[in-house]
Amino acid sequence: MQARHGLPLPDGRVPEHRQRITTVYAYATAGGTDTAFLNDTAGADTFTGRPAYATMIGASLYSYASGFDFVYGCRTSGGAGDTGYLYDTAGNDALAAKPSTPR
Asked: Is residue 73 within 8 Å of 60, Cβ to Cβ?
């Protein structure tokens, strides 16, 4: 895992000098059953879950997780305007959700 502060983001955006960006890359590569928790910030953040990787992106945060069996996008800081996007595979996928806890 790698964490960097105040450096350019992987998508090429360069943060203002006054702004601190925390960037975290996490890779599950050693086998087993691995779980990642991507936590939000107090601001508006976006969680994106794809079959191969997941991200949590906000004004001061870029978190990336790849190769995990389970990835949770966690709204822990209560930011208004948080959003989430989930993408399926070409196969037969399922989503189970409740009003308070989508899964």
From this structure: no
Specify if 99 maps to a domain. Answer: no
The string of pLDDT tens digits covering residues 56-94 is 999 888 999 999 999 988 888 777 888 999 999 999 988
Domain residue limits at 75: 2-86
17 vs 78, higher pLDDT: 78
Q: Tokens 């992106």 map to which residue?
A: 57
Angstrom distances, CA of residue 14 to CA of 37, 79, 83, 87: 25, 23, 23, 27
pTM (2 d.p.): 0.73
Residue 20 included in any domain: yes
Burial of 13 (0-12, 13-18, 19+ CB in 10 A): exposed
In a domain? residue 100: no
Q: How many domains does the chain have?
A: 1
